[in-house]
Amino acid sequence: MNQKLKELDYKKIFHYFSEISAIPRGSKNNTAISNYLAEFAKERGLEYIQDEYENVVIIKEASKGYENAPVVMIQGHMDMVCEKTNDSTHDFLTEGIELLVDNDYIHADRTTLGADNGIALAYSLAFLDDETLQHPRIEAIFTTDEEVGMEGAIGLDVTPLKGKYLINVDSEDEGSLLISSSGGLTGTCELPINRVSNKGLKVKIMISDLQGGHSGAEIHKNRTNATKLMGRLLFELREYVGYGLIEMKGGQKDNAIPRDSFAEICINPEDSEDFTKAIEDISFKYKNELKSSEPYLAIHVQNLSEGTFECLHPTSFEKVLFMLVHTPNGVQVMSSNIPGLVESSLNLGIFHVDADKAVFCFSVRSSVNSYKQYLASRLNYMAGFLGGEFYVRGQYPAWEYKKDSKLRDHLFKVFVEQYGYEPKLEAIHAGLECSFFAEKIQDIDIVSLGPDMYDIHTPKEKLSISSAVRVYKYLEKVIEGLK
After folding, report:
1. Distances 42 to 23, 46, 53 between C-alpha atoms, Å
2. CA dihedral over 330, 335, 336, 340, signed as positive or negative
3. Secondary structure of the chain: what % helix, strand, coil (to 5)?
4. 208-219: per-residue pLDDT in tens?
5. How many Å separate Cα 156 from the centre of its chain?
6. Which of 20, 349, 368, 417 could cross-link to 254 by cystine, CB 3.0-4.6 Å?
7. Helices 13-21 and 115-129 meet at what angle, rounded to 10?
């Protein structure tokens, strides 16, 4: 454990955060962290459930005097988004995250930190391990694969659970209580492609160092999608030189705004000078347009080799380029009910050209189910029109606002007592597992909250140490006040 974190620790929250961070736990790699949580329960003689989805539920019965208090569920997800900088050699499958401390912040070395949602796990373990805490029955719920479709929450059997109050610790803004979230789906378009042999010079074009970010929480911040920008570059490059597209790729997660993309093209060696001039012109134009929103934008070119290459057939290329240029992306509708809230959006998070197809993977979000379906239908229409296919996975409902909420009122009251001012009650344009608990458990009362985190889903992710401690102390008072 980092020595400075040890000095700043409170009730072992950073002790557990360090242990959790040492375990590789990217999405679809849940076994080790799931077993760690189960072993934690065994060592303390706590009742636990570990299911076929590798979800874990740990139950701590009520303290004396709290036997009749409302049961409280504390919930977070095990998996983290695995993003890293281009120069990082970190292996997310085998290596844990080394925690670095810089003043008030914890961050990682050129990778995502995993505070989303490791801090929720750390909080829950600290509560379960604290013999001094006065509390009702606690049901700590740890779900899997939230970042790739909330598959753990979808599969969780809630029948053993007794809680009617759920505190979801998957938010990133201290002082805000989240009271509803958008629904969403993951949609994939596949366009079949044919190839043709072209002789020439293979050149690699790279767009990098965009800000990226969470495709829900930061979709409204005017951050450029690197894949869409590369599509525009290829579209405009045709005005300067002819070329064939060999390969293109952008983005790694459907729920992260792509920061980088690359394309490999084949040009006539005699056009090298015109090509270089074209990239210079285009680069200057983009940097000027995006100087405020994307100040670190970089466009590089690398000459690879001369030879014969399998390029997209011109017809296939036109279809792929048409999709790249015209597919909807970003904010589509702002809410008419809540000022400043995005109602509907979509993000082209993953794109790659394979041997025989081009694959477009989108994260679609909306607090209005019918508009979510409309966006999916538009993508289906475009894919079908271009001779491709569209399919949906990981669909989840919206978590709707509850007018009367005893849990929200209690959290509000305790917040004012601790902080001296009122918390913000907010809806969020991102999917939360709260939606599945609301769907599965009748009359459940849910609030989501969390400490200050920044730039989640990017290698710049960081967690405020002081905020993490304050929010934990706040939750202590919330739990003790449920008597």
Report:
1. 19, 6, 19
2. negative
3. 30, 30, 40
4. 999 999 898 899
5. 21
6. 349
7. 130
